[in-house]
Amino acid sequence: MIRLRHTAALAAASVLLAACDGESAPPELARIAEFAEVYEPADTIVLEQSDSMPLILPATWEARADGVHATVDVEEGNVRLFRADGSLIRILGRKGQGPGEFSFPLAAHWDAAGRLHVLDLDHMHVAIFSPAGEFQRAVRLGKVGNAYDFAPLPDGGYLFLRMDDAQELLARTDSAGRITRTFLPIADYVPPGLRNREAWR
User: Fold this and answer.
1) pLDDT in tens, 170-192
2) Residues 42-58: b if buried by 16+ CB within 10 A, e if exposed
């Protein structure tokens, strides 16, 4: 896992804002920050691999309150659950069109009740799994479009980060997947009850 050094991130953001405003950045900020300057190691987890289905292309990585970690494998079309020590608990789903199966899973996040929500961009739905990892249902998405990250909301709806005409937008949906509101610009809005993720900024 990595933790953002906020001061370096703010410095990098000032360079971008100055460039956008047509102003020259101060000499000490007029360069691209190195990865190691912006991020520092917080912890290391060595993940157990399945011999028959190794982890190939992981996407999101998120920990539940009890220490269970979930990551999406975009290439294999499934979600892996790991303990805090990196041992594999189970693999959810596989490539396919049936209930609990995926075509292009892109992001997975826990809700407050410990359920796992998985965004499948090709199927245009969010698959919901119980805290034990059993498939429960899928929420069909209306006009969410090209979403690449999301968060479950306390009322059962979702907040999606999506691209629309080369702009990043936040789109809020109800529990049935219908868009109820769009927020612009995303930098000015952090959803109530959710942590301030890099994606929202």
Assistant:
1) 888 899 989 888 876 555 556 66
2) eeeeebeeeeeeebeee
CB-based contact 118:107 (threshold 8 Å): yes
The angle subtended at Cα 86 by Cα 121 and Cα 127, nearest 5°, is 25
CB 198 within 8 A of CB 187: no
Count of CB atoms within 10 A of residue 27's CB? 7
Please tell me the distance from the alpha carbon of residue 66 to that of residue 69, in angstroms, as a whole number. Answer: 9
Complete edge-to-edge strand list for the sheet that includes strand 158-164: 146-152, 158-164, 167-173, 179-183
Judged on CB neighbours under 10 Å (0-12, 13-18, 19+), 152 is buried
Q: Would you give the end-to-end CA distance of the chain in angstroms?
A: 19
